[in-house]
Amino acid sequence: MASTVDRPSARRPGGRTARVRAQILAATAELVARDGIAGFRYEEVAELAGVHKTSVYRNWPDREELVVEALLAYADDLGSVADTGDLRRDLVDFLMALAESLGRPTARALLLATQATHESPAVRRAATRILEVRAAGMGRRVDLAVDRGELPPVDRSLFGEMLSGPVHLIVNRGIRPFTRADAERIVDVVLAGIRATTPHT
């Protein structure tokens, strides 16, 4: 049976191209997560994405560029923390989104890219940029909370690490699902600790 991605899409100009690109990027992330950056082949990407091999070569003649773009696509999920006016809720929602994203192949590819010192400098830079995007999103929300008096002045990096660290631990171990109750407990403990240990002026 022919793949649906190979059918013409006259009713939605450009729609097929965007869909094919998304499938290729997702397939690349999955293969990198499974085999490492040096281990995947264009033929496997095309097969997993359900497209012809020429579609991969035409869009990404350089394999490194394909890996970088697959990693950078992940940044779209990590760039911000919501601002509903309720800090606790925003942080809990962020941890739930983080846990969901960590279960995707792209997250495993990102982890491999940040740890593999022998891999391409461009790939490592892309992985580092993604982590910086996530840290910046958290930092903006923390700054707002401090300005509004929801939090005392706090080290933004440490605050983000205290929140996200347990999520990585639970999800990466794979012992049990990460739940909203987990997220709420983490946020409550971190907020209470920050507020209790910061000297009052």
TrEMBL record:
<keyword id="KW-0805">Transcription regulation</keyword>
<feature type="DNA-binding region" description="H-T-H motif">
    <location>
        <begin position="41"/>
        <end position="60"/>
    </location>
</feature>
<dbReference type="GO" id="GO:0003700">
    <property type="term" value="F:DNA-binding transcription factor activity"/>
</dbReference>
<dbReference type="InterPro" id="IPR009057">
    <property type="entry name" value="Homeodomain-like_sf"/>
</dbReference>
<keyword id="KW-0238">DNA-binding</keyword>
<dbReference type="Pfam" id="PF00440">
    <property type="entry name" value="TetR_N"/>
</dbReference>
<dbReference type="InterPro" id="IPR050109">
    <property type="entry name" value="HTH-type_TetR-like_transc_reg"/>
</dbReference>
<feature type="domain" description="HTH tetR-type">
    <location>
        <begin position="18"/>
        <end position="78"/>
    </location>
</feature>
<dbReference type="InterPro" id="IPR036271">
    <property type="entry name" value="Tet_transcr_reg_TetR-rel_C_sf"/>
</dbReference>
<dbReference type="GO" id="GO:0000976">
    <property type="term" value="F:transcription cis-regulatory region binding"/>
</dbReference>
<dbReference type="InterPro" id="IPR011075">
    <property type="entry name" value="TetR_C"/>
</dbReference>
<protein>
    <submittedName>
        <fullName>TetR family transcriptional regulator</fullName>
    </submittedName>
</protein>
<keyword id="KW-0804">Transcription</keyword>
<dbReference type="InterPro" id="IPR001647">
    <property type="entry name" value="HTH_TetR"/>
</dbReference>
<dbReference type="Pfam" id="PF16859">
    <property type="entry name" value="TetR_C_11"/>
</dbReference>
